[in-house]
From TrEMBL:
The keyword Protease belongs to this UniProt entry's keyword annotation: yes
Lineage per the UniProt record: Bacteria, Pseudomonadati, Bacteroidota, Cytophagia, Cytophagales
Name of this protein: LD-carboxypeptidase
Domain LD-carboxypeptidase C-terminal span(s) in chain numbering: 174-290
Family matches, as PANTHER family: MURAMOYLTETRAPEPTIDE CARBOXYPEPTIDASE, MUREIN TETRAPEPTIDE CARBOXYPEPTIDASE
Length: 300
């Protein structure tokens, strides 16, 4: 399947901010709106911004209707998911991508938005895994923000270079990028939102999970055959991992290594991807090259 890439943004175009998961206020987005306006874009706030239904940005119907409106509106040239949390998987099956298929546009986000990244890839569309508006102003996030801007406006991505890591597995790989939050990749398995990993470079990150949960999810990817055909593996941030009173016995990256070493593909650790300020934007579906050697790892 060939991957469709939306047209690059241009100054003067309209972009929508929506929240398909956790609730958020318009006030929290004021810094992001200022930044997007400085980029020359006109910002439209969807109905889910300031929506309030328990922890969600409105009930499922409101969030689905809001996202559908932005998918269908030809004047909206990109949809930026304001934040993550939980809830995107609850609305994705009710979305109609008919008009989007004819006139694709950028959809960007990460964490819970991994559901949309993989769903769109399964439909043959590229999207952006990158920093979300609620985090645009965070200290130390300048690289993350600039990489998102470059992806949206069609500028060449800068290579991502990280130092050597003791768990790295050397080699080279070329393939389309796929991946995101491990918990959500686990959630979409065997659904319409699952995208194939075969022949692709998988990137992974996660936040606030118990170590045994991490092992269970990696075991599932292994047992379901999803790791078997990988071209390569890129490991990002695994932040604020938790353990039980009786320790699991392995750290997060050691758990990933225990499964990655069952295969022959190259693996690079320490990439700035995930729930840290340095969260470089990756275009899901983009052909990429991974090199892991004694100097470290490079993704370009």
């Amino acid at each position: 399947m060939s991957i469709q890439f939306p047209p690059a943004l241009q100054a003067g175009q309209r972009v929508a901010l929506v929240s398909p998961a956790r609730k958020i206020s318009a006030a929290e987005l004021a810094p992001a709106i200022e930044i997007l306006t400085a980029w020359g874009l006109e910002v439209v706030l969807g109905d889910s911004i300031a929506g309030d239904h328990h922890q969600f940005a409105g009930d499922d119907t409101l969030r689905r209707r809001d996202f559908q409106q932005q998918l269908d509106d030809p004047s909206i040239r990109a949809i930026l998911c304001a934040r993550g949390g939980y809830g995107t998987a609850r609305i994705v099956d009710g979305l109609d991508f008919t008009r989007f298929n004819a006139h694709p546009k950028w959809v960007a986000g990460f964490s819970d938005i991994t559901v949309l990244n993989t769903h769109l890839l399964a439909l043959g569309h590229a999207s952006i895994h990158g920093v979300m508006p609620v985090l645009f102003h965070q200290t130390g996030g300048e690289m993350a923000l600039e990489s998102l801007r470059r992806a949206l406006f069609g500028e060449a991505a800068l290579p991502v270079i990280v130092p050597t890591h003791p768990l790295n597995r050397p080699g080279t790989a070329t393939g389309e990028l796929v991946g995101g939050n491990l918990s959500l990749l686990h959630t979409v398995t065997a659904t319409a939102s699952q995208a194939s990993f075969a022949g692709r470079i998988l990137f992974l990150e996660d936040l606030d999970e118990y170590l045994y949960h991490l092992d269970r999810m990696m075991l599932h990817l292994h047992r379901s055959g999803q790791l078997a055909g990988l071209a390569g593996l890129v490991v990002g941030h695994f932040s604020a991992m938790r353990d039980n009173t009786i320790p699991f016995g392995s750290a997060a990256l050691e758990i990933i290594d225990s499964y990655a070493r069952l295969y022959n593909f190259p693996v690079g650790y320490g990439f700035p991807i995930g729930h840290e300020a340095e969260n470089v934007a990756l275009v899901v579906g983009q052909l990429a090259h991974l090199t892991v050697d004694e100097a470290g790892a490079r993704l370009f």
